Amino acid sequence: MSAQENAPPGRDDCGESSLCADRGDDATRTGIGLGAKSALDGGADGLRLIEPCIQQAAGVLVGGGVLLLEIGADQSKKVVQLLNQENAWEDIRVFRDLAGLPRIVQSRKSGP
Hints:
CATH superfamily: Vaccinia Virus protein VP39
Helix content: 25-40%
Structural class: alpha+beta
Low-confidence stretches: 25-37
Number of strands: 4
Number of domains: 1
CATH topology: Rossmann fold
Radius of gyration: 15 Å
Strand order of the largest sheet: 1-2-4-3
Mean pLDDT: 76
């Protein structure tokens, strides 16, 4: 039986996020419209959407559940710091893309 089959209603054993948010100035520089710009605006450091995703995933995933985050190539250290600050995550790993850039952060929800 998988962890998901044992998960309480509204909880899960895997979460994935590919938020594709730009830093605020990047969205402006590309010249996209206001609606699209606000959807892509990740704030000054590009993490405006990733921070709440980490916090919310801690409340949704069961212990042992996996969170996968697609990140910007320069965001891995900050994302790992955010996961460590939440104190709900373990086995945090960063995977590189084919160009050798940090691209995916994987973490496992602590607890039973």
